[in-house]
Write a structure and sequence with these properties.
Strand content: 25-35%
CATH topology of the largest domain: Dihydrodipicolinate Reductase, domain 2
Shape: globular
Structural class: alpha/beta
Number of strands: 18
Strand order of the largest sheet: 3-2-1-4-5-6-17
CATH class of the largest domain: Alpha Beta
Largest sheet: 7 strands, parallel
Distance between the termini: 52 Å
CATH superfamily of the largest domain: Dihydrodipicolinate Reductase, domain 2
Number of domains: 2
Helix content: 25-40%
């Protein structure tokens, strides 16, 4: 039986580990004992132990006897952790969503003769996989992804809960958003171009620019219009903009009663309880992926995939952990079953372009009741 090590026992990392433990020997690591205990209580199949991934030599020694590494650490340590894994010559699936460009590690991965599948969650992740597949079938001109995780119960003022740290959410709200328009890269402030959109079963949501295109800006340069926008309940953006414009997300320390403090650190601490998703708190993930282009018959076709996923009461697993984690788990299976064996760093679109892999992802998720519904129409 194959041996897998999962780095990071947060909501998503734990979901990945528990899912994979049904088929493989899985070890789950974290620097937080409470997080490990919480995961073990859900599945006694797991082996758990403490590990600080920032200690490079210890990390590389720890992972040397495993067949596959899954990296689910926070974004701010993600790039260096991934680099350490590649240097240790281990195949890896990564969902740490760091700001650096993972393709910078491609040459190293080829040199070490390993496969790294990165950004393999829900978005980035499944939207890339769908894009990669249809890029092989059509001459695409347009791609748009609208995505968001939302609590079922709206609590004023933010009407938002997250299965991960507020600092990672704030990073999404402050990192400049890049998108492609008429073949040119445009950079705008995050939270800009806010507009209302309708989703069946949810109602009106607001969408805004966020920096979610990532690798496809470089791997799909022929697609002339590409955009990713985040979804929230109406009113959320205004409250975030108030905090942002008032300096609550600034990192430069200020003096308060003789002490130097970072406004961002204080804001994150305050928002932790406000945004923390309860262990059994119900939430949903909604996504709409729209692709346009010329099909094989030369007709302009629009293809739309939609997702509406909910908290799973049977397994006490959040929707965001399910939709993100099980996509990564599918990628782990694809590697372990040798369905994809190219060497280097691969964002999901370069895996999903293969029909076998594309179908594997969709079937794997559907078996876990995560269903992407497809509609298509000819526009001319």
């Amino acid at each position: 039986m194959k041996n897998i090590i999962v780095l990071g026992a947060g909501m998503v990392g734990s979901a990945i580990a528990i899912d994979l433990s049904k088929k493989y020997n899985v070890s789950l690591t974290d620097f937080n004992q409470d997080a490990l205990m919480k995961a073990y209580q859900k599945s006694s199949n797991l082996k758990t132990f403490l590990l600080d991934v920032t200690k490079k030599s210890i990390l590389q020694k720890t992972i040397k006897d495993f067949d596959l590494v899954v990296c689910a650490v926070p974004g701010f340590i993600g790039f260096e952790t991934l680099k350490s894994i590649i240097e240790a010559e281990k195949d890896v699936v990564d969902i740490s969503f760091f700001s650096e460009n993972s393709l910078e590690l491609d040459a190293l991965a080829k040199e070490k003769n390993i496969t790294a599948i990165v950004d393999c969650g829900v978005a980035p992740g499944m939207d890339n996989i769908i894009l990669g597949y249809y890029n092989e079938k059509m001459k695409l001109t347009d791609f748009e992804c609208l995505v968001g995780g939302l609590p079922k119960v709206k609590k004023w003022p933010f009407c938002y809960k997250a299965p991960f740290s507020p600092i990672d959410v704030i990073e999404e709200y402050t990192r400049p958003a890049r998108y492609i328009e008429n073949g040119e890269m445009i950079t705008r402030e995050a939270l800009s171009d806010c507009e209302f959109v309708e989703f069946q079963g949810v109602g009106t949501l607001e969408s805004f620019n966020s920096d979610g295109l990532r690798s496809i800006m470089f791997t799909m340069p022929h697609v002339k219009n590409m955009k990713e926008k985040t979804l929230r309940y109406p009113g959320h953006v205004e409250y975030i903009q108030v905090l942002k414009k008032s300096g609550f997300f600034d990192t430069t320390k200020i003096e308060v009663n003789g002490n130097k403090v970072s406004p961002l650190d204080v804001t994150s601490k305050v928002l932790f309880n406000e945004w923390k998703l309860g262990d059994t708190e119900e939430e949903i993930t909604v996504m709409r992926i729209t692709l346009k282009g010329k099909n094989l018959a030369g007709k302009t076709e629009e293809i739309v995939y939609t997702l509406h996923d909910q908290y799973c009461k049977e397994t006490n697993t959040s929707s965001m952990a399910r939709t993100t984690g099980y996509t990564a788990a599918a990628a782990a299976n694809i590697l372990l079953e040798n369905k994809f064996s190219d060497k280097g760093v691969f964002p999901p679109e370069l895996v999903g372009k293969h029909e076998t892999c594309f179908s594997y992802f969709l079937n794997y998720l559907e078996q876990r009741n995560i269903v992407y519904k497809k509609k298509s129409k000819i526009l001319e």
